[in-house]
């Protein structure tokens, strides 16, 4: 443990290594461009038109390759997540503006960050391109070789500088994993009480990759913050020693001695509270990442069902151009929101911890427990009386100023006034009291808004703006735009309908080219329409096991028995 603490104190030290990671990043562009050219040469262009220039000499070679389909990729998702994880180190340096390949004036730093981000993206482009390429053998060899180079250089750097730059580099899966079989399984306690799995819903690779990268970046951010805390704590210990020497030199009779003792107490309490609140702040952000995935599934299902009531009214018909830009912004903004949200939540929780320490714990330590209990009792009694008077107003209004129910089945009385003269006197005398009560209500509104706003700052799926001002929340706007793009491009009904149209078009073209009467006269095996229908029905039920419970059953047979009969008939 001492070695670990000693390593955290070497933040401002220099490490001599034979590997310069920034220089290696620059040189890694050479094999990256080579891999991109090879994959582009193998990729054929679908629409190649002859033109007058020399581009026709290339034929249909050198097609455009994509690193990742951010909309419609549902296979090999965890491999893409690991590939995103390999970029976590450079993402953290870009987040802290620590990687700047050029040195230009301050006003042009945005262009420097754009160039640095482009270079980092180009150096990691082969990780994703080799996974999404259709040429499995070539892409596997190139991707594994490129990943192995990065892995070897990273291991060499970590061995030589174990307390230096934090790197996370992982060798990706070069081959596609087998798809798991879908089937009904017994739900566990976690599935029934916390989160219910849906085997028919698949998160896109963008969501999986973003979540994995957010986890790794959050871990790196917490480690860096902890190292900075250890460094600041050591500096405060040195400063505290100087204060003790000053008190000793003044024989504890100086005029500043009480102030110095309070400062020492504040530093000790702050260090303890900051260290303790690391765990709840990190758990809060980790739970947010899982909750965002659950909200994505819930929101997508609602959009697929045509339900938009959970969205603000102005987001029912978002701009198409803004939605396209939103899906490009979402992944980066989600990671930034989680990191900044963790820091803000940590600060707020630390302030709450200081309030608890100074209001409840320290008075007991200083033998002022009775005074603390007296003040706490008075405050609790005051708040209880205020709340009791508010509840009493509601009870009086319900009992004396509303007409009785028109039916015993009604849940509440109708909104019809009764005893109007007494009601007007009731309002007049409570007017002056409610003016004073409104001041406390206003302050409580401000306090609750601040607490909820800072607590939910990392939630990009929920706006913290007031009703009517949701458009000012750029993160929430990016979330809504991303949902609409996925809704329009991955809607299962729309995709199935388009698939039926494409299949029907191909069948019509096949009917025009082939004479089916020749096929009917052939000696090959013939398949009846009933068997073909049963086979398609069986395939649908195997891929969607929940549909078995929703099927109509034959008279005298349950749905499961009829499914077993169908299976036996298909096997025969």
Run of helices and strands: HHHHHHHHHHHHHHHHHHHH
Portion of residues in helices? 55-70%
CA-based shape: flat
Say what oligomer this is. single chain
- Could you describe the largest sheet, including whether it forms a barrel? none
Radius of gyration: 33 Å
What structural category characterises the helix and strand content?
Answer: mainly alpha
- Tell how many strands the DSSP assignment holds: 0
Strand content of the residues, in percent? under 5%
Model description:
This protein has 572 residues and is mainly α. Among the domains are: 19-45 and 62-162, no CATH class; 370-468, no CATH class. It is built from 20 helices and no strands. The protein has helices at residues 2-8, 21-27, 29-42, 77-86, 88-95, 109-123, 125-132, 136-160, 189-193, 205-249, 257-276, 278-304, 320-365, 369-400, 420-455, 474-490, 492-513, 516-520, 529-543, 559-571. One of its GO terms (molecular function) is signaling receptor activity. The chain crosses the membrane at residues 24-42, 110-129, 135-159, 212-232, 273-296, 337-361, 381-402, 430-457.
